[in-house]
């Protein structure tokens, strides 16, 4: 056998994304490395795996479609070997695919993946970032072993391990008059221009905060990129509401945003770990869950202002 599992993994990532660029982002490997691996794999197998169209990216050939099924089975069997070995030895090995909700991934994902990999050198952590619905879909398809997300909507067939509750707060520009207040009510916010974080399920949660008070916010914009949203807030385009609070108060353009407590203790969101319930967790997954449970608490969340460090919730 003159091809490697790594080449097979690169082929799978490219086939599932339809693009070497997207595959590079997904598995954090350079595009030239992926291109070279696929070329070597095609040469070794004597089959063209992709049709390369300049404007439309890559599409699988009939041979590529057949090989994709076997490639996934091969990688799954290889991971099973690692998992079986880890069950009977004191060392962990194999690949752990970890998904993370895109709104807080820049804050928590680097520290969690790096810390776990440092504690277990035989493990390769493969991080992925997506919205809540996509994380559930990838868990269901066994493309992810475990995922960090919120408890917004957990369908039957999934287990959710709660880690920490994050209260909502109002995000305003440093120059906004609201920035000087100790707290702000939802009624006060409803009179201002809202920049809504417009992601599946998240939008329903934020709109629900107002609906429960019989209020309708004035939506100035709907954005899906948290960094863009923060920069728009910093430039006085409007305010926003969020739960994940970065330790850094500086937006992408260098202007500051301020977190203001929302009076009345509105319903928060719980950050936790999602898994498919019917799948018996491997020792690797169980160890990762224990690691996250020990790391994340009310007093510490990687990359975030922890709940215990935020202003106390009062009526």
Please give the order of strands in the largest beta sheet: 4-3-5-13-6
Helix content: 25-40%
Dominant shape? globular
Query: Would you count the extended β strands for me?
Result: 13
Distance between the termini: 67 Å
Total helix count? 10
Overview of this protein structure:
It contains ten helices and 13 strands. It has 315 residues and is an alpha/beta fold. A five-stranded mixed sheet has the order 4-3-5-13-6. Strand 9, helix 8 and strand 10 (218-223) form a beta-alpha-beta unit. The longest helix is centred in the N-terminal third of the chain and has 27 residues, at 62-88. The radius of gyration is 22 Å and the shape is globular. The relative contact order is 0.14.
